[in-house]
Amino acid sequence: MILNRRHLRVKVMQTLYAFFQSENDNLSNGEKELLKGIDKISEMFVTLINVAQEVISFLDTEQENAKTKHLPTDEERNPNKRLSQNFVYQHFLTNREYLQKVKQYQIHWKDSQDLIRKIYSQFRESDDYNGYLISEVNDKEVNDAEDKKLYLTLITHYIAESDVFISLLEEENVYWHDDFELVYIGLARFIKALPSDANEFSPLPALYKDPEDDKSFMIALFRKTILNHEEYDKIIESYIKNWEMERIAMMDVLLMKMALAEVINFPGIPIKVSLNEYIEISKNYSTPRSSVFINGNLDKIIADLKRQGKIEKTGRGLVE
Asked: What pTM, to 2 d.p., does this model score?
């Protein structure tokens, strides 16, 4: 689930948007919100696992309680325990990093037992669950693969499609929709690659490729955009003929400011890379014509800034 530079730029963009909208002037608080937004990705990853764990635990408890009934049926006396013995479920019961993060994020479902019960009821009646119970064979490799598939099915079709669960995510994280696909893909890859000999010390996926470098990049981009935003406003306005700044989509202006901050202040990043990144981001976060608008104007601005000697690139292949 490693975040690439585009993910980091999007997080900076989201935090800057909120920063400017609130007319905040406290950079330190803004930086804390930026890093908190990144941590929310890790929290969502752990939360998805934890809901699955809770649903399976609920089923296990139900089976144990059924044994104590006055006249339990044969099936209740000898329930099929394959799900509670699921390889992935058992792994997370002891994984130290996962358990530590559950405690850190204070994840619990004491006030949401109706949600757990509803997901459990839908899942227990499904063909996915009942087919899984009878598919066990005398081959650990095959069974482990089936365990992984079933665990992901529970998350994909019963947890992630729950309207109540989605509402809870929205309350916790306004950007949950942007983060969810990234988190789910990372979780699916992690579970599919989970080795049979995974133990309590097996690590969860890292968020950063290089924590120090990536955090430094985000904070510097965040700061440079804010500290120079009035200057960048003037630059952008001088190149946009027949347009008033107030009529341009706020996101377009913000993305152009970020692009200028990056091109001017990060000498090790090629200009073409920076431009392509912000053009691609605009396709998902602004208007249908934004990418053309941003590309055309940044091309002119950057060409003139280069001629004025205000942009310098260093490093192999970057000096022009």
From this structure: 0.89
